[in-house]
Amino acid sequence: MKRASDLRFRYGYLIHQVFVVSLTTLSAIIILTPVVWMINAAMRPIKEVLTYPPRLDPSQLTFEYMASLIENELYRGYFINSTIISLSTLAIVLVLGLLAAYGFSRFKMVGGRYMLLGIMALLMLPTVTLIVPYFRLAHLVGLYDSLFGLIVVNSAFILPICIWLLKGYMDAIPVDLEEAAMIDGCTRLQAMQKILVPLAVPGIVGTGTFVFVFAWNEFLLAVTLTDSPGSQPLTIGLAAFFGQFVRDWNSIMALSTITSIPLMIIFVLFQRWVVQGMTSGAVK
Known about the structure:
By secondary structure, this protein is an all-alpha fold.
């Protein structure tokens, strides 16, 4: 009986493993197919890519399309603008988010719960509903068609979820550690800097990666609040390839590949902290 029970357990475990591996493999294929097609179209003439039946063995591989974009001063400007916007948004959101999350996590404020619910309610607003208010406000304060205006708007839009993620992570860190540091002579700010922030590094990295990716990929606010190449990011440059009658697919895929490289590098370097920070900060 015991041997039969062991065999049933092993048989069930084997079926479970086969199912998990098959489902994972299928999901990976579905996710990676567009990425492979993008890289393929960035290095092969589009006529060859779109041939039917598809050819898996390329007759010609070239970096000409990527090189032409890299050598183009206009698109180098787009890349620099995206870098400035993303890094500036990251710095502003992390500083303000850390301070706000620390306050909500460590202090009992009157109406604090309702303030958190109000912040959460901001996350429910679709970006498109804020286009007109942002547009009029940017014109009113003189921030229309400027990098600073995009940085401010991106920061305001992504800050609420940053506060929620960081607060959830800080709630899991014992307050006794900070109290012990303050007994030893640290101020509250020093205790936060020397005790809390080092322990919250996974949450900070995970949240920071989320913020950077959002700012790097943002399009709707950029196309609404900018009008000249001097303040437009890469997403606007990518949209310029979509004409009314013609689409330059090779350039589109080449620029998409170049745009994706920084995000791939970030996830390769910080994937462990990204997963740990996002999952730990999402729940208390």
